[in-house]
Amino acid sequence: MVAVKTLIVGANGKIGKHLVRKIVEGGHEARAMIRKEEQAPYFEDLGAETAIIDLEDSVDEIRKAAEGVDAVVFTAGSGPNTGKDKTILIDLDGAVKTVEAAQAAGVERFVLVSSFDTSREAIQESPSSFSPYVVAKHYADKALRDSGLQYTIVHPGILTNEEATGKVDAAEVVNRGEVPREDVAEVLFQTLQTDSTIGKEFQVVGGETPIHKAVQSI
């Protein structure tokens, strides 16, 4: 199923902005879910719709943003400068509420941007300052796997703002490394077009394989 219209949650983030642009430039429709009215003109100038909704709002509010779309991509994150409370509210509860909103809106396809390694082992090995984030992602991933939705979970490496290369290494397990945010956005765009990624999750870092081929190989 090629997603004709996609809701991007966390659209005002760096990956989200790249993804909205790629979707529109690819001839598809994008709806950017953002928190502030002043963020809207950027997306409207691209030709995208906007939905001004906070991830701390109710499931029903988020459902309104998901009405009428073919897919949801969750790229939101609390960021490195917030406390454990925001990690729980955004990275865990925000993701779970978005899954529930997609179910309520009848959206079947859901792509989630997670952390590189969200295994139980990664939680135990993480420093105390980072472990709440890994815990949040671990349970958000589990909620999506158990949801019955046509899911894909993308586990990017260390995110950078370097210029996109158009090439990555992507597989169930890859060596830890860096990856430009714009390349992650392209991975997400290609994932939306590739049914073979449904029901799968994979790690992605910078590499030597063109992104469309890397995604097709998942």
From TrEMBL:
Start and end residues of each NAD(P)-binding domain: 10-194
Pfam families attached to this UniProt entry: NAD_binding_10
Protein name per the record: SDR family oxidoreductase
Organism (species): Virgibacillus sediminis
